[in-house]
C-alpha cells in the first residue's frame, strides 16, 4: 500500500525498506542498535551529569538498573521524570533512551530517571512494568537526595514506553503508590486486542505494523491473558489518573488506540492534550531534521514542562 508520508521523512525509508521484523528478537535488537548508531547524539547546552545506579527491584526480583540525568545548573528542588524506553516490550535499552532523557534534563531542568526494565520474551509481563514501578517508588523515596520536588514527578515514554507509562499510572493509583503529576503517552502501545481500524489496516507501514504488533503482545504476555495494567485500553475506570499528553502518528497501527484512550481519559475527567501528526509513521521522530519532527519534539518538551510546572 502507498502512504502519503511527509516528503521530508521519505529519505529515512531507504534505511529500512523491509521494516524492522520482530520474528527474531535478538536480530531485531541488533538491527535497532545499528540504526541508533547512525542517529546524531544530543549535546546538551547546559551541564548534565549522568550516573547509573542499581536500585531495589520488585519483591523476589533482581535489582533494576537506572540512569539518572541531573541538570546541575538548575536549582533544586527540580521536577522529576521517570523515562521508560520503547521497543515493543522486547527491545530497547538505556542507550536508546539517552537522547530524550538528556534533552529533558537539559531543556526542562528536570532530574530524569531512565529505567532499564526487563524485556520480553525472556521476562514477560508483569516483569517490565514491576521494574518501572520499582523505579517510580525509588525516585519518590529518594526525591530529597536527588534534588527532586516529590510533588512534581512525571512519567512517560514512547511506543511500548507509552503503554508501560499508562499501566504505571494505573498501578500507582490502585496501589496508593507515589503521586504522579503528569503522564506522557507518546504513540502508546495500549491494546492487545488488535482490533482498531488502524491496527487492522496498517499491515505494511514503515518500522511498525500489525505483524510486529501481534508478535510484540505475544512476547509480552507470554501466553497469559492481559489485564488492565498490561493493556491499559482494557481498564474500565480511568478516573483519578494524572493529566496526560498523548500524541499519535497518521500511518501507525497504534494510532487509533492512542486516540481512543485519550478520549476515554477525557470522559473520565482527566485533563488531556491530544495531537495527531499527519504524514508521520511510527518512529519517524528519529528523523530529527524534518520540520514535522521538530514540531513533535518541541511540543513533547513543552507538554512535559507544563505538566511538571
UniProtKB/TrEMBL annotation:
Keyword tags: Hydrolase
Pfam families per record: Abhydrolase_3
InterPro entries in the cross-refs: AB_hydrolase_3 (IPR013094), AB_hydrolase_fold (IPR029058), GDXG_lipolytic_enzyme (IPR050300)
GO function terms (MF aspect): hydrolase activity
Entry annotated with the keyword Transcription regulation: no
Gene3D superfamilies associated with the record: alpha/beta hydrolase
Annotated ranges, domain Alpha/beta hydrolase fold-3: 82-283
Stated name of the protein: Alpha/beta hydrolase
Amino acid at each position: 500500500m502507498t502512504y502519503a508520508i511527509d516528503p521530508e521523512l521519505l529519505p529515512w525509508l531507504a534505511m529500512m525498506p523491509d521494516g524492522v521484523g520482530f520474528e527474531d528478537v535478538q536480530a531485531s535488537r541488533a538491527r535497532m542498535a545499528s540504526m541508533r548508531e547512525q542517529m546524531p547524539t544530543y549535546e546538551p547546552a547546559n551541564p548534565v551529569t549522568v550516573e547509573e545506579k542499581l536500585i531495589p527491584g520488585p519483591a523476589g526480583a533482581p535489582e533494576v538498573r537506572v540512569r539518572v540525568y541531573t541538570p546541575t545548573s538548575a536549582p533544586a528542588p527540580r521536577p522529576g521524570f521517570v523515562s521508560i524506553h520503547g521497543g515493543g516490550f522486547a527491545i530497547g535499552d538505556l542507550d536508546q533512551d539517552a537522547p530524550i532523557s538528556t534533552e529533558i534534563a537539559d531543556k526542562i531542568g528536570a532530574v530524569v530517571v531512565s529505567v532499564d526494565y526487563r524485556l520480553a520474551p525472556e521476562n514477560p509481563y508483569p516483569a517490565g512494568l514491576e521494574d518501572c514501578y520499582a523505579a517510580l517508588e525509588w525516585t519518590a523515596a529518594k526525591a530529597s537526595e536527588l534534588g527532586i520536588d516529590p510533588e512534581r514527578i512525571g512519567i512517560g515514554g514512547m511506543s511500548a514506553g507509552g503503554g508501560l507509562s499508562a499501566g504505571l499510572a494505573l498501578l500507582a493509583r490502585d496501589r496508593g503508590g507515589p503521586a504522579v503529576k503528569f503522564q506522557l503517552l507518546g504513540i502508546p502501545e495500549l491494546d492487545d486486542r488488535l482490533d482498531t481500524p488502524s491496527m487492522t489496516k496498517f499491515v505494511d507501514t514503515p518500522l511498525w505494523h500489525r505483524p510486529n504488533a501481534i508478535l510484540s503482545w505475544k512476547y509480552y504476555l507470554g501466553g497469559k491473558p492481559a489485564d488492565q495494567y498490561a493493556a491499559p485500553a482494557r481498564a474500565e475506570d480511568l478516573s483519578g489518573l494524572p493529566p496526560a499528553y498523548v500524541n499519535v502518528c497518521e500511518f501507525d497501527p497504534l494510532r487509533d488506540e492512542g486516540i481512543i484512550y485519550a478520549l476515554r481519559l477525557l470522559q473520565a475527567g482527566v485533563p488531556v492534550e491530544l495531537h495527531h501528526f499527519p504524514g508521520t509513521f511510527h518512529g519517524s521522530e528519529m528523523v530529527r531534521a524534518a520540520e514535522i519532527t521538530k514540531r513533535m519534539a518541541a511540543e513533547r518538551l513543552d507538554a512535559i514542562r507544563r505538566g511538571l510546572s
